[in-house]
């Protein structure tokens, strides 16, 4: 947190001991903290003043059953931490706060501060800090160890604000992550001020055990689950089961849950709140063997998938079995992780429609879902994505949205993610979701697309406009489908969350570049210039016909038309909304930066960015080569055949060059993706199944290409083994056919035969090359 941020928390990692009547920062005034809290679950709120200890004392006087009703775990604070030995106090238990941000403080006991932090996490309610600048209030105080909150704004600030990461990221990016991968991600999130984060790993074990409890067998349950690369859509009720192998095993489910324990524990350690999965209602067909009277309806068909893999059974929330399973799912997680959260992710109609649009029916669905959550955890908050109101807007008119949301009778018991705020905000026409708390989210990336892209104007101006116009906006978040590059736009929004005014992007980009490349050298001026050029062009898209990250056409199945300049988000956008020559200048600036600073070649951030920029530059050029080829093929010139042959070879040579560049950095590697997938298997069959999952998601996305190329990647190895053969088939076909004899079905069949055969291969090109050498060679060529 920078010193100019809205808030300065003297808490986690900032150990302090201050007298109650002494300001922690010289010159700052002291005012009591105000807390808006419920006295009974779902009851009216009251505003109480003082430290959290004082507020809890007042709440106990108002409601003697307060802790029991809210399931609040209040730490014992009547035993001082000084029982530790003097030697312990002199070492790890004492830490002195420096004067880096907020001034000088005496020492305090670290475990007392940790206890205070845990104390604060257990207390529901919204603390309010009056306007500053220069105003502090004591949040907690026990045994000479205090936590203060200071406000340098000119307006009152209410906590908490929220940030989160989207559901499907767990399949597009993190499907095969290990604990080491998650450690880095959680550090990344915490360092950027995220305080609410989805912890969705391992849900299959929780649901399996809940279904076992009502009498179902593993033989009935396990075939319902989808493979790791597709499990997000299984949880969201879009697909069921697996294709391409044996399916998931009990061993894998157990291993994922053990990983989730580490993830949740680290989230809490870092001061963030995990969002855990709730039971949404999606169940195997076989549930009706043990509950024959249960009300189960088949969901709608999704994205052209065969019936056996879609139309997922949905257990009605009005059925008593729904509440029973909800209680089991929530209680099992509380038992495994502790009382670490009150926020639960629950989406029932992601890209599928309810069985009826009748308003009473929609209200009853959400009412009983909400009641099941509150019965399982009286403090529960239902977090849902608002994507359905945009994606299925033909169904979700204003009346139906209002009816569905009205079932949650206490507004603060729901938290809605306005999932695509930067391009397709829904909060205005839904009147801020009819008063429900909501989060302004940047989606930005569909399917893990890798093009350089951003909307920095929308990401800085629009959130502040929303903050000024909507009383129920409570925070900002990231909901990208895949986390693949473009890190600056994510950092920008997360920093914007701490500023009351739109960030000056020129200054921000300069500071960001200094941070990204600084080390034992001075950042060359060429890098500042290059990033400022991209700030004004590549990352400043204002043409919202293309409203998300694009991809290069070489990732798409070849065709004689319809590839260049595509807009929207699916079929995959390929439009370039800036002058492509800008990237030529950017590339030269990046290259020239190494002349005076040779150590850049060993800088990981520079290497990544140089590979990424080169990938985009060559991908843009590929479109020109492709267009020239199609023009020659359609022409009737005498040298038509020679031109087709020449341009076909040029196209294939360019693919080889792109593959070579990408092989210089492991972040652009098919081998790394497949290796991480196979590592989760404990038998040859399970390793092969996970590899099939990994291959299928980034290519056909379905047993027979139902969402083909949606999650394609510009990766070394994928270009040489998949894209190049497809384009070879295409140019070979063009050489054999003229415009009159061209048969699209014949070509599609040739391509699909290869694509299906690639799914079951187990050969992955590997090899790492020097970026400096490769770029010099390609430049010379």
Helix-strand layout with pairing:
Layout: E1 7-10, E2 29-30, E3 34-38, E4 45-49, H1 52-62, H2 66-70, H3 86-89, E5 94-95, E6 108-109, H4 110-121, E7 126-129, E8 135-142, E9 145-151, E10 157-158, H5 169-172, H6 179-191, E11 196-198, H7 203-213, H8 218-221, H9 231-235, H10 250-269, E12 273-277, H11 287-290, E13 296-298, E14 313-315, H12 320-337, E15 343-345, H13 359-376, E16 381-385, H14 387-391, H15 398-406, E17 414-418, H16 431-434, E18 438-442, H17 456-469, E19 473-478, H18 487-496, H19 505-517, H20 525-536, H21 581-596, H22 604-634, H23 640-662, H24 670-678, H25 684-697, H26 718-736, H27 744-759, H28 771-780
Parallel strand pairs: 2-8, 11-12, 12-15, 15-16, 16-17, 17-18, 18-19
Antiparallel strand pairs: 1-9, 3-4, 3-7, 5-6, 7-10, 8-9, 13-14
Helix pairs in contact: 6-10, 7-10, 7-12, 12-13, 13-15, 17-18, 19-20, 20-21, 21-22, 22-23, 23-26, 24-25, 26-27
Keywords: Signal
Protein name: Tim-barrel domain-containing protein
Signal peptide: 1-20
Give a quick rundown of the structure.
By secondary structure, this protein is an alpha/beta fold. Helices cover 43% and strands 10% of the residues. Among the domains are: 20-72 and 106-162, no CATH class; 169-409, Alpha-Beta Barrel (TIM Barrel), CATH 3.20.20.80; 548-562 and 632-759, N-acetyl-b-d-glucoasminidase (Four Helix Bundle (Hemerythrin (Met), subunit A), Up-down Bundle), CATH 1.20.120.
């Amino acid at each position: 947190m920078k010193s100019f941020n809205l808030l300065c928390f003297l808490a986690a990692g900032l150990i302090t001991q201050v007298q109650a009547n002494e300001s922690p920062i010289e010159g700052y005034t002291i005012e009591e903290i105000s807390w808006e809290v419920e006295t009974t679950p779902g009851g009216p709120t009251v505003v109480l003043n003082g430290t959290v200890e004082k507020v809890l004392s007042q709440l106990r006087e108002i409601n003697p059953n307060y802790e029991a009703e809210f399931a609040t775990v209040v730490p014992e604070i009547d035993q001082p931490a000084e029982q530790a030995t003097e030697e312990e106090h002199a070492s790890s238990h004492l830490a002195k706060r420096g004067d880096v941000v907020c001034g000088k403080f005496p020492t305090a006991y670290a475990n007392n501060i940790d206890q205070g932090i845990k104390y604060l996490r257990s207390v529901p309610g919204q603390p309010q800090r009056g306007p500053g600048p220069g105003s502090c209030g004591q949040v907690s105080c026990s045994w000479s160890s205090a936590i203060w909150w200071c406000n340098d704004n000119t307006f009152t600030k209410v906590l908490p604000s929220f940030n989160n990461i989207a559901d499907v990221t767990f399949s597009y990016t993190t499907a095969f992550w290990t604990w080491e991968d998650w450690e880095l991600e959680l550090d990344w999130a915490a360092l950027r001020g995220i305080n609410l984060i989805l912890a969705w790993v391992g849900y299959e074990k929780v649901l399996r055990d809940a279904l076992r409890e009502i009498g179902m067998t593993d033989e009935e349950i396990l075939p319902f689950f989808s493979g790791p690369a597709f499990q997000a859509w299984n949880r969201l009720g879009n697909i069921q089961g697996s294709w391409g192998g044996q399916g998931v095993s009990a061993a894998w489910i157990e291993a994922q849950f053990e990983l989730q324990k580490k993830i949740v524990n680290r989230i809490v350690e870092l001061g963030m709140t995990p969002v855990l999965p709730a039971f949404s209602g999606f169940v195997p067909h076989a549930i009706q063997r043990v509950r024959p009277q249960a009300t189960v309806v088949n969901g709608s068909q999704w994205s052209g998938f065969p019936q056996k893999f879609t139309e997922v059974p949905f257990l009605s929330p009005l059925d008593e079995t729904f509440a029973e399973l909800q209680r089991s799912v929530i209680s099992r997680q509380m038992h495994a992780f502790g009382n670490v959260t009150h926020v639960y992710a629950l989406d029932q109609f992601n890209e599928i429609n309810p069985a009826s649009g009748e308003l009473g029916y929609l209200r009853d669905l959400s009412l009983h879902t909400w009641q099941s959550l509150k019965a399982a955890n009286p403090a529960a908050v239902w977090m849902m994505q608002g994507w359905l109101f945009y994606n299925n807007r033909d169904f979700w008119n204003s009346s139906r949205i209002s009816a569905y949301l009205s079932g949650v009778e206490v507004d603060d018991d729901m938290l809605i993610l306005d999932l695509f705020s930067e391009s397709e905000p829904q909060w205005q026409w839904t009147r801020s979701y009819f008063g429900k708390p909501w989060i302004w989210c940047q989606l930005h990336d569909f399917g893990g697309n890798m093009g350089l892209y951003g909307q920095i104007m929308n990401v800085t101006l629009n959130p502040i406009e929303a903050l000024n116009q909507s009383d129920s906006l409570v925070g900002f978040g990231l909901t990208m489908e895949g986390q693949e590059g473009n890190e600056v736009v994510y950092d920008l929004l997360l920093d914007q969350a701490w500023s009351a005014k739109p960030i000056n992007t020129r200054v921000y980009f300069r500071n960001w570049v200094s941070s990204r490349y600084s080390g034992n050298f001075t950042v060359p001026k060429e890098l500042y210039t290059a990033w400022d050029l991209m700030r004004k062009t590549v990352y400043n898209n204002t043409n919202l016909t293309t409203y998300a990250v694009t991809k290069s056409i070489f990732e798409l199945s070849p065709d004689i038309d319809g590839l260049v300049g595509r807009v929207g988000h699916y079929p995959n956008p390929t439009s370039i909304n800036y002058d492509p020559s800008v990237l030529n200048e950017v590339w030269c600036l990046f290259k020239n930066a190494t002349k005076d600073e040779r150590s850049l070649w060993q800088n990981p951030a520079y290497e990544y960015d140089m590979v990424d920029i080169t990938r985009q530059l060559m991908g843009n050029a590929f479109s020109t080569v492709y267009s020239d080829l199609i023009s020659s093929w359609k022409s009737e010139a005498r040298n038509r055949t020679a031109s087709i042959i020449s341009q076909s070879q040029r196209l294939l040579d360019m693919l080889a060059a792109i593959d070579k560049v990408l092989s210089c950095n492991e972040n652009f590697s098919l081998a790394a993706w497949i290796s991480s997938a196979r590592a989760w298997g404990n038998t040859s069959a399970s390793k092969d199944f996970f590899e099939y999952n990994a291959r299928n998601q980034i290519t056909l996305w379905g047993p027979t290409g139902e969402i083909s190329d949606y999650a394609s990647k510009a990766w070394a190895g994928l270009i040489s083994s998949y894209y190049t053969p497809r384009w070879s088939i295409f140019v070979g076909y063009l050489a054999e056919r003229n415009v009159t004899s061209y048969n699209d079905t014949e070509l599609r069949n040739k391509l699909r035969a290869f694509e299906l055969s690639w799914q079951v291969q187990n050969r992955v090109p590997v090899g790492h090359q020097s970026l400096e050498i490769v770029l010099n060679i390609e430049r010379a060529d």
